Amino acid sequence: MRTVLVVLFDDVQSLDVSGPVEVFNGAELHRPGTYRIRTVSRDGRPVRTSSGLTLVPDHSFADAPPAHTLLIPGGAGTRRPDPRLVAWLRENGPRAARLVSVCTGALLLAEAGLLEGRRVTSHWSVCDKLAREHPSVEVDPDPIFIRDGDLATSAGVTSGIDLALALVEEDAGRETALSIARHLVVFLRRPGNQAQFSAQLAAQTAQREPLREVQQWITEHPGEDLSVESLAARARLSPRHFARAFQGETGMTPGRYVDRVRLEHARRLLEESADGIEEISRSCGYGTPEAMRRAFVRTLGAAPAEYRRRFRPAPAP
């Protein structure tokens, strides 16, 4: 049995706690003896979450059991770290078989010196801060979660559920993870290297109307000719001027934006439709299944057929 020890502190984000806990508890219900879930705070007293909920821990730092998986959630409290919490993590983090952070919980691990030389992610809003204040940490702001050996870090809020499902699948098998996903009405799990943002959210909205119209056109017509020349003509600009203006106003090259839109559209079709791979590749502008396969493997680490098998929501039992 693996002890999952969840660290609580004032102004913790309640969903960072409850999301993963529901997943681990689901695994225990499905396969008794898989996990023992415990919570701990500095002195064992109740803590107040950032949303006003009160959580009552099982243990204080002094009597906490050894953890197989030590989980550190995020929340406003991570921006004003309690020195005693940081010291406890510095001492106890290395003793855990697996160290996990959700959202801004990575800030606490960094303060404790537990992320040195590791590749991590966190909520997009603190990734710059994390990289600036801890230059020896390799911070990747894009994925929803990252596994680096015995360390697992995730982005904001719901990505903690995705990471917990991935850990359950590793510990207890795909069928257990699938059962939990069905119960929670979520995907079996999103791939960790899926971007935190869609293309439309990741890119800024262009200031000039012709460029905004082009952004919308790309989103609505991923299967069309989306070359720089074609898009520039639609914006009534020269290709060179268009490419420079698009990147300047959106923060993303036209090609990068098109790639992300096409990938997201293909993913949605694989998850939500029964269309064949060849049909999807054509409708998303890839032209051939092989071109779409290369894009999926490069970005998501899985071919389209494998992506569909693993990440399409399962039918209700």
Automatic annotation (TrEMBL):
UniProt keyword annotations, A-Z? Transcription, Transcription regulation
HTH araC/xylS-type domain mapped to chain residues: 212-310
Q: Which InterPro entries match?
A: Class_I_gatase-like, DJ-1/PfpI, Homeodomain-like_sf, HTH_AraC, INH-QAR
| Entry annotated with the keyword Transcription regulation | yes
Name by which UniProt lists this protein: GlxA family transcriptional regulator
